[in-house]
Amino acid sequence: MSLESLYIVLTAGFIAVSCGLVGAFLILRKMAMLGDAISHAVLPGIALAFLISGSRDNLIMLLGAALVGVLTTVLIELLHKKARLQEDASIGVTFTWLFAIGVILISAYTDNVDLDQECVLYGEIAYVPLDLWQLANGTNLGPRPLYVSAGLLLLIVLFVWRGYKGLTISTFNPDYATALGISTALWHFGFMGLVSVTTVVSFESVGAILVVALMVAPPATAYLLTGKLKKMLWLTVLFAFATAGGGYFLAVWLDGSIAGAMATAAGLYFALAFAYTRLQASSRNKPLKATAASPTHGA
Amino acid sequence: MDKFFAFFSFTDPNVRLVTFGTMFLGLSTAAVGSFAFLRKRSLIGDAIAHAILPGIALSFLFFQSKNPFLLMGGALVSGWLAMVSIEYISNKSKLKPDTAIGLVLSVFFGVGILLLTHIQHTGIGNQAGLDQFLFGKAAAIVKQDLYAYGIIAFLLLAVILLLFKEFKLLSFNPDFAQASGLPVQSLRFVLSTITVLAIALGIQSVGVVLMAALIITPSAAARAWTERLSVMMLLAGGIGAFSGLVGSYISFTAPNMPTGPWIVMCLSCIALASLFFSPRRGVLAKLLQQRKNRIKIVSENLLKALYHLQEQSDFQNRHFTEGDILEQRSFSQGDFHTALKKLKKEFWIMPITEKNRFQLSEKGVEEARRVVRLHRIWEMYLTERMRLKADHIHPNAETIEHIITPEIEEQLLEELGYPKKDPHESPIPYKA
């Protein structure tokens, strides 16, 4: 494995783990499609910030995106609660509208913007090794996206670690959380902000829709295999890394998009885990009949 | 303005193709989308739109041709597979439907992207233009496409017209449909098939990501205006077609503007405007109604406060200041003044300007007596019939006094035998 492939796999791995950890809570909060909506809806935020600042990596942009993400959830809730539009339709109307605004903004300034539709859809993780971070004196520190994705991972691990109690209680038992004086609304919006930040950082590498694959598939696979949260989070980390590695080799083998291959790999792991649980379920059912029958045999 | 006429005269054959193409697609997807919307399956539509991509890529890999019918066949198969997978995963595991939708959507799309990039990199056949499925190719519709889409769209609409009653029953009450002997399974199959087909058609005009809008948004907009399915479908179809027209016009006047996103933009604006401003179900109408109710309640409470003040002075004193009223009962500032204005306008209270005081008019006294009467007979009812203690009944009566209709009032009075005093020994004021 060359150094360049290592850079790509590591960056992809960091992003996959970040998305997976966030996604685990998205799934448990029954908000997978809300995550999907946010991942599309941050596009106008990214486009605007990019048009104004002319660069893709700054803190203002991250904060702006987090804000747009939170706004998306507010808008969805507004349509759902105030306009009494059913929830699935509220999500659909909101994210397509915001995404359309994003694409229009990008096409309006298509000449001077290094941000195109294909990049929006499936990212450019293959270019990771080219985007080097050099100090003023010329020292080469390695690819910049690697640092960015590592920073994202650090942020998310810190959030999950320090906020474990609030996050879990507000996820599983909102009423109990309220009784304990934990603000469920604050956790809700804080978490949505985190989802938006994760999306924006991952956007560049894997694009809008494959972020969703990384957010949903590894934790869903882990959730199939265990009912315990901590074990689920560790399994998610495992599957996320496996997704990054397997995806990379699949992409090299088929000469295709790395992000697409990662989603494919994640889907394959899920299919295997699903088949395994189905087999287990059916074999658990059969011995049950056998054991029920055996005492009569013995007697 | 020149461009306006150039566009709407439809002399340019290209304009004609694009405009009629997008209008056709908008109309048929919106009509089919109504059922998905009513069955609360609109996000499954989003998933199918994404899941069509690998089918198109595989069909191209297999046949090496861009024949629209062959590509549609591939799209149909993978769209179907996605729909079945979503149902299988959410039925046979502990994963929730939203997780299953997100999973299938993103994984199928990922496979599609992988295959598409594989095709591009290996340069098999004449692949240029396949990626137009991603973003839509409204601006590049050619005659052959238009005929193919026209035939399919016509078939879809024909099926909907023929099976309208059956689909309607299936959408609103599947259990009843089953019980009344309809072939529910086959109907579901037909409905799913035309949904997948409609989606496969629609992504030609707006692309994979925005496809959800063509299904959901016209119905969401139309639903705000009507309670009837047939009207809703017609409206949704009209909105879909109109947005197609607007989208093509905008990309005609500004060539670097994409058609698809502008179609969606137009759809969304219509939907948001409908949801907020429709006279019956709109947010604004509801807010206004709520405000009207609140002011009515505050005015009634104000009248009641004036009546109580009179009562306390044994009906000797009839002129009171704002301060007196606020001392008797607390009101929020804004509502208090609005209600005061309303009462003056209806001549229920009369200002005595030089003293800065108010007096109830004859009509006002009558209204105040009505509210107080309702309050006190309800308190009687609660103690007499519900056996509640006298110190528990006041808050309940505070609410119900604004709701009781004259008919219920009459019934209550008869039931209680026209009592003279309420449980707190206050006299019940009857109509003069």
Provide a concise account of the structure shown.
Chain A contains 11 helices and 2 strands; from the N terminus they run αααααββαααααα. With 299 residues, chain A is an all-alpha fold. Chain A has a two-stranded antiparallel sheet.
Give me the secondary-structure category of chain B.
mainly alpha
Helix content of chain A: over 70%
Proportion of residues in β-strands of chain B? under 5%
Helix run count of chain A = 11
Number of structural domains of chain B? 3
Low-confidence parts of chain B, pLDDT < 50 over ≥5 residues?
none
- Going across the major beta sheet of chain A, what is the strand order? 1-2
β-sheet strand percentage of chain A? under 5%
Shape designation of chain A: globular
Distance separating the two termini of chain B: 71 Å
- Look up the CATH topology of the largest domain in chain B: ABC transporter involved in vitamin B12 uptake, BtuC
Report, as a whole number of angstroms, the end-to-end distance of chain A. Answer: 64 Å
**Which pair of chains forms the biggest interface, and how many residues does each contribute?**
A-B, 63 and 66 residues
- Overall pLDDT score of chain B: 86
Going by CATH, what is the homologous superfamily of the largest domain in chain B? ABC transporter involved in vitamin B12 uptake, BtuC
